[in-house]
Design a protein that fits this description.
Order of helices and strands: HEHEHEEHEEEEHHHEHHEH
Largest sheet: 6 strands, mixed
Strand content: 5-15%
Helix content: 40-55%
Strand order of the largest sheet: 2-1-3-8-5-9
CATH superfamily of the domain at 56-249: Spore Coat Polysaccharide Biosynthesis Protein SpsA, Chain A
Structural class: alpha/beta
Number of strands: 10
CATH architecture of the domain at 56-249: Alpha-Beta Complex
Distance between the termini: 72 Å
CATH class of the domain at 56-249: Alpha Beta
CATH topology of the domain at 56-249: Spore Coat Polysaccharide Biosynthesis Protein SpsA, Chain A
Number of helices: 10
Bound molecules: 2-acetamido-2-deoxy-beta-D-glucopyranose
Amino acid sequence: MGTRARRATHHRAHLRLRHRHLLLLLPLLLLLLLPPLSALLLRRANSLGRRCLPPAAGRRPLAGQRLSFSIVTLSDEGLSGRGVRGRSFRGVLAATARNKRAYAAAHGYGLAALPHGAVDPRRPPAWSKVLALRARLRRHHWLFWNDADTLVTNPDIALEEILFSVIGHSDFDASPDLILTEDINGVNAGLFFIRRSKWSERFLDTWWNHTSFVQFGSTKSGDNAALKHIVDHLSPEETQAHVRIAKMQCLFNSYPWVATWKSVHRLIFHPSTTWKGAYSDGDFMVHFAGLNDKRGWTSRILREMTH
Ligand SMILES: *[C@@H]1O[C@H](CO)[C@@H](O)[C@H](O)[C@H]1NC(C)=O
């Protein structure tokens, strides 16, 4: 072999090696780009064609009698700083309660903020939603429970529109009693509607009675697991008559999509669940479920809303 030929062979081998490097780099590059790109796209899900609330034509609010609604949430006093370690609720309650107060006032809804005294000290504070709702169930047609780490991000949307889009008619007496959303873990207890009825009273009593689910000392308090257990064990007939789960989680319970390994994994293996629930501009509500820096998230979203 001449010198030139040897050099050419050497060159080809070198190129092959470089190609192989590129082939290895490409998936790595994609893997690195996937999280920020996904965050960018999911945040724009609604402008990319996602529909959380059916288009305006179908958006008739519940007609006839004007129904009475109340948002029920935690008050901004007393509870501050009682959150689980690592999960800062300090400063979150005041900001989210202000946001709910403004929304309720604009639409003529009631707002009940659970006072410190209403929290049963024998259980993690999250359980007190059951008592708070039970105590107020007879005063309004519908109660809308809001965990403290939630914000109304599109105050133009009315609760009547949300309910109409799930129920499909505006006959209060023929309505189901419990309106939920579902995330990757099943039904979520952070935001839901409950109707004034005997069924709802019994349902809340049953929920409160699921004492074996009460959990201390972790980020989970057990109220959500108990709710999921009850809903999962209803007969199909009872579910059909009393429970509705919104088709789109983003109808009233969107979670910000944060680029962690867990969420990338979920995006790859459960793309449709991620798509239905990721917080995007225009969504009705955001819920900082599972996020640690709730205060940071609250002020970031509130800042974005005023711009
Ligand atoms: C809940 O528990 C209380 C006290 O044990 C009991 O009196 C009540 O009947 C229970 N209610 C339901 C709906 O399970």
